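Encode chain A's predicted structure.
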Amino acid sequence: MASAPRRSLGANTLIVMAGTLGSRLSGIVRQQIINVFDTALTDAFTVAVRVPNLLRELLAEGALVNSFIPVYKTLDDTERRRLAQVFSGVMIAVNLLLMALGILAAPWVVDLLTSTNSNVDRDLAVYMTRLVMPFLMLISLSSVAMGLLNADEHFRESSFAPVAFNVASIVALLLLPDTATWLAFGWLIGGVAQLVVQLPALRRFGLLPAPALGRHPALGRVLRQMAPFTLTAGARQILNVYVTRLLTNAGQFPAGTQTGYANAEALFTMANGLFVVSPVLALFPRFSERAAEKDWPAFRALTVQAIRTTTFFAAIMSALLLALAPYAVSLFNLERDFAPTKFEAGAGILSGWALALVPWAIVTVLLRTFYARERTREAVIVSAIGFVLEVVLYRLLVPSLGFMGFGISTTISGLLMAGALTFMYRRALGFPGREVAGHLLRVVPLAAASGLAAWAVSLVLPDPGFILPGLLGLAVAGGVGMGVYLTGALALRLPEVAGVMRRLKR
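Encoded structure for chain A:
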């Protein structure tokens, strides 16, 4: 099997972050175009794509990568190839079955997702759900490809594959008629592109599997690692179903709220994906190596590095999104005659979610340390309890706090999960609490001051709403806030900012 010299952790992290940045920015462009469509169409589409997304975390992305890589790293080249063949065959068979069930059960699934007093067109949502169900197969195969490439630290093609998804979808949205049929097919075209762009790299590195149904001794280990994700995925989907039903309740929220939620979600996932998930994804193969070698001092040092890096970026993004949420959501309004319900919902939800970035950065890192040690059960139990708690908090806080209740609920859940995971980590390996606490006590107050500076500047800028004032607010007020943060970080001699400056000079 061909292999290239291994890049440094810094190079891998930058590659993943660059791919994530391209993916999120192109995703915002895609969402901007979708927002031009009729509100009834975009609300129904948002409900429809949630159906395959209910299963993608279990069969793709998180569950696959976090379960497959630690087992894959323990095998020799021959056994890795055999495992990839068998595993991909099983994934195809399972996805075909679920895809057929999803198409047949679409009316019942849409009824489950939407309120009885719905502000979404049910028939349109059912029709689009059936059209987008094959996306589950496409994203699952794409995630198999990503897992194979990432396990050998080939991050470039897998990191930029979501960019191909967005670009293909954007082209389809621009060229095809603005109807329900073509909006759904544009999503599928993007899924095909995301898979296809990774195939040449798999072939080049000798990793392209020939799917086959069969047995492999390590397959059971992978499936056992994936099994606890059923608990997590089930709890997360309870949360997703509850949120969708809540947002589609015409008695509480007007039409357009579902699309506003999707706009806020796109911005939040951009910040979280770029500054939290990307560094952790790049570090995960090294975590798996250290765990396989049982080099626990190096494992703890890597944990500190991951938490410091992610929270350094997450803190300032949290502060800026909280201060400038209306300006950020304005990016989706390409027309001056924008729907106020979409804008108000997006800004309110995003400002609350901004508070959750730092605690969820810690949760994201710590979860990967459990997955790398093949201690999946403990991690997913904490995750499942956290998601159930979040549902309870939504029920308690959203009626009284409105859109901010979503973010505050997520923040409280993240803080409690981070505390539980820290306790379990310390009991097993000895948590480097002093180093982490000292870092947070510096970056969080500094980020808060930077956010206040950005907010103060925004008071003298044009009101947000349309895209042009939104861009101005982000550039000017956001630039001031970022300048304050980097200046303060230099004054405090934080090693993270020194690393950023070195990279920028290259």
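Residues 137 and 394 are 32 Å apart (CA to CA).
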